[in-house]
């Protein structure tokens, strides 16, 4: 664990979506791994409080969870140190820490937003990066997380019309929050999955191009979960692993320049935009 308090707050990257099973957990585990591989100090926080999967995807058996931290705060107040409740993930010399989701539903139900946010604020003082996995809903906790994040990754997939409708609602709602343009990043996952809906049409509907596109690779994704090893840490080369690394490079400003001036295309007359306009 880090010995010294950092002078600046760490970067908070939150993964959010308006549909479930779009890859929030898989991608947040990979982002934490890749940042740690680059030598950054990283904590991955599982705020899918009721049904968190981070520890399953990484095959971790946490001794403590966010529920224990909340008990700590209630008993000890500010003497409670969040870093004592973390679980390390280590693979081939790459190390990062995980704040696990509660084990029981009733514990998850009783987590107070106030404490959950306090945890992130403490972690920001200790780590270069705090990666937060969330649920797909506009809850009080998620809105507070979005507000305090440095970067919000709004993840989408192009599969069925209702998913796209919800992505549009989500995007519009996030726009209303008036975040800095650089803060909100629209990322498409599973891009080449079989679907009759074109990415172009979806971008026109959303009025914005995707910041980054990740390919569909069911075999690689499920094997990495089965092994408990994120794709970016595997020796085997996969297109998805490469695309995940590129995403992290862009987030750390080592990749191609972010956002061209004219990247926000006006919504055109596609069949999708006619349905939803
Ligand atoms: N690019 C991809 N290609 C193929 N399969 C993928 C890809 N990304 C994620 N998956 C698969 O999709 C499923 C859902 O992924 P994940 O659990 O990360 O989504 P989620 O958004 O966290 O879901 P939830 O909202 O339920 O928490 C997993 O089985 C995962 O292996
Ligand atoms: Mg998840």
From TrEMBL:
Signal peptide limits: none
GO molecular function: ATP binding; ATP hydrolysis activity
Residues annotated as domain CobQ/CobB/MinD/ParA nucleotide binding: 13-222
CC annotations in GO: cytoplasmic side of plasma membrane; cytosol
Entry-linked Gene3D superfamilies: P-loop containing nucleotide triphosphate hydrolases
Gene Ontology terms: biological process: negative regulation of cell division
InterPro entries for this protein: CobQ/CobB/MinD/ParA_Nub-bd_dom, P-loop_NTPase, ParA/MinD_ATPase
Designated name of the protein: AAA family ATPase
Species the sequence originates in: Selenomonas caprae
């Amino acid at each position: 664990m880090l010995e010294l308090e950092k002078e600046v707050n760490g970067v908070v990257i939150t993964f959010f979506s308006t549909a479930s099973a779009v890859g929030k957990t898989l991608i947040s585990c990979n982002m934490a791994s890749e940042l740690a591989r680059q030598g950054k100090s990283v904590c991955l926080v599982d705020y899918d409080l009721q049904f968190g999967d981070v520890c399953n995807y990484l095959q971790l058996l946490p001794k403590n969870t966010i529920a224990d931290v909340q008990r700590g705060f209630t008993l000890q107040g500010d003497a409670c140190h969040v870093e004592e409740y973390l679980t390390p993930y280590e693979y081939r010399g790459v190390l990062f820490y995980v704040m696990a989701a509660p084990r029981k539903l009733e514990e998850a139900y009783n987590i107070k937003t106030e404490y959950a946010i306090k945890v992130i604020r403490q972690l920001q003082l200790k780590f270069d990066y705090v990666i937060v996995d969330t649920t797909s809903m506009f809850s009080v906790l998620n809105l507070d997380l979005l507000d305090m994040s440095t970067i919000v990754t709004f993840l989408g997939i192009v599969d069925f019309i209702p998913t796209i409708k919800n992505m549009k609602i989500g995007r519009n709602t996030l726009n209303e929050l008036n975040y800095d343009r650089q803060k909100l990043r629209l990322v498409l996952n599973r891009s080449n999955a079989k679907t009759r809906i074109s990415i172009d049409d979806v971008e026109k509907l959303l009025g914005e191009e995707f910041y980054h596109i990740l390919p569909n690779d069911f075999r690689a994704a499920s094997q990495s979960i089965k092994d408990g090893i994120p794709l970016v840490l595997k020796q085997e080369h996969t297109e998805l692993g490469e695309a995940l690394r590129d995403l992290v490079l862009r987030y750390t400003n080592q990749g191609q320049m972010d956002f061209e001036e004219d990247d926000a295309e006006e919504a055109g007359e596609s069949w999708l935009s006619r349905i939803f306009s």
